[in-house]
Amino acid sequence: MSFTHDIKSNRLLDVVINENFSDIAPPLSDKQVLVASERCLFCYDAPCITACPTGIDIPLFIRKINTGNNHGAAKEILSANILGGSCARVCPTETLCEQVCVRNKHEEKPVEIGRLQRYAVDHLDPAQPYPFTRAKSTGKHIAIVGAGPAGLSCAHQLACDGHQVTIFEAADKSGGLNEYGIALYKLVDDFAQTEIEFVLKIGGIDIQYQKALGRDISLAQLRENYDAVFLGIGMSDVNALNIPGEQYPGVEDAVAYIEDLRQETQLSNLPVGRRVIVIGAGMTAVDIAVQSKKLGAQDVTIVYRRDKSAMGASQHEQDLAQQNGATFICNAQPKEIIGDESGITEMVFNKTETDDNGKLVVTDNLISLPCDVVFKAIGQKFESSPLGNNSDKPALDQRGRIAVNDNFQTSLNDVYAGGDCINGKDLVVEAVDHGNKAALAIHQQLKQIINQGE
After folding, report:
1. DSSP assignment, residue 221?
2. pLDDT at position 236 over 70
3. For burial by CB atoms within 10 Å, which of 59, 201, 346, 425 has the most?
4. What is the CA radius of gyration of the chain?
5. Nearest residue to 424 (alpha-carbon basis) of 394, 387, 399
6. Of 379, 407, 423, which residue is a domain's last?
């Protein structure tokens, strides 16, 4: 971290900080689960199933909970989404399954699908056999790059199909976004690693750490040595503000800070600003704003260049930010950060307007805000250089991410991709879906090769 020396940590007592980062949505009690599950209407052609990217049969698992079959409910969830435990905790259910719940009408609350899903997965009976088995070995070996949600779900399904899988992970831990990028209060008690241990129980999956594509391994090598390749490499580059003063100490990458926060065992050791500005409008912006307040920042302001209705963060997340003391300033575009090599003191913005055609218009009206930390949370971008610099690499789409077809196959016949490195909504549950579908396509392709050889 490049925070300046006068930005103190430990402005709150350790016990207060630890309490601030406790589970934001504690598990339901048995009684609460019974009441919540009884509200489900068990709809025919339930819209919540369609709204779930992994297609979990939500009414079925809730019915199993309601009849006391928690283990069966968990198996139902995990069969569709092997990372169903983390997704239950981090999914924006308010914009997915719960938004389309038929109960979500006439000022009535939707069924608490996310919390019921968490309850079910948490009550998978450890005394029962592992709920998945490996098929007979196919003799095929697949390389997966990236041990995040897409890579892990792809690996688990391929292992179930009888293939051998090797995952190459650039970091020293698996989990990707779940381990390094989710707000700490959403995924507590090292749950990401507990879930990964469960995934690996299927067998047939080897993970090699600190193996980065383009540095330690090349795509050409993987294609030569393995029967297929799946790329789940995420987005490693951060968008810049491209304004004067961005280079000064105190201007930080929100994603990198959240990663440090999640890996820190003593949260009071983390530097935190007194007056924090967050630039952005998505989930990461809210996550870093809320966590800054929970660490003891005095003032936290989220600044967005458009109006609030255009923010990427859901209304639930916006409410969470406000409940934790963050404020919003909209229609303000970054112009300049005032400071020097010892730190920053102020940020200047141009006021903006939206014309009748929906186009953003930057005005000459200026506002300035005092600050000692600015977090950039304006999105990440895909870095394609690890794929190689010759023509024998996957084609990119118009957004600069890896282009894939409906089977998640790239322009290279034996290379597939999913997760944040392809075009999508950049959600954990969506990445799991990509991994599942890519695994199915890879299995079908390899099965054809096997059958042709018989």
Report:
1. H
2. yes
3. 59
4. 23
5. 399
6. 379
